[in-house]
Prior knowledge:
Layout (H helix, E strand, L loop, with lengths): L8 H20 L5 H25 L3 H23 L9 H17 L7 H32 L1 H9 L4 H14 L3 H9 L7 H8 L4 H31 L7
Helix pairs in contact: 1-2, 3-4, 3-5, 4-5, 4-10, 5-7, 5-10, 6-7, 7-10, 8-10, 9-10
Amino acid sequence: MSTLVDVGPALGIALVLLAVLAAVVSRYACLGHDRAVVVASLRAVGQLAAVSLVLAAVIESLPLTLLFVGAMYAVASLTAGRRLVRRRAAWWAALPVGMGAVPVVVALLLAQVVPAEGIAIVPVAGILIGGAMTVTALAGRRALDELQARRGEVEAGLALGLLPRDAALEVCRSAAGQALVPALDQTRTVGLVALPGAFVGTLLGGATPVEAGAVQVLILVALLAVQSVAIAATVELVARGTFADS
């Protein structure tokens, strides 16, 4: 087989059944995401169909590739910000997403670890930007929830003479740091529990198992760096009140 799955009617049926299963379970387990599951599934199909057509032209041009990556960065920043607060301050999420992903992508290109070609830049940048987006939203949400739940401890810190930023950091930093756990678990168990997408995709693209493994290790370690920076920046912004509701 040249691809991981056969594209045809069976694939469409499988997608519909899986989406329905997820929505039904969410509905009857009162998870509160039944409608979101359906909407997300439909959006995924539409967006990937459109992106597949666009990428065919984009990856042949370096300027268009960079423009496409910039669009991914903007969407990721807005998505992460909306998970934290629904107002203009949401765009502050662009800071941790960018601080995490941009320097790493640029460094990999300058070091020629990743070739300056669209076919390489788009997937690598997409994975790293997506990872930064995920932990920015998760770390920020955890930090905000922790500050709300432990407001008394923050006030106690202020009473002891701590600055507002320092009092907030003492309370929320540990909870926000838990956002790195999924990436750590994925890195620890790679090859033992699952074979991640970069490995499988590279292997199906004709690379040797060693080359595919090298690509996957690069992605996983780069993700740890990207997400660590993004979490640290997010916690700092939360502690400074950037994402506060008032």
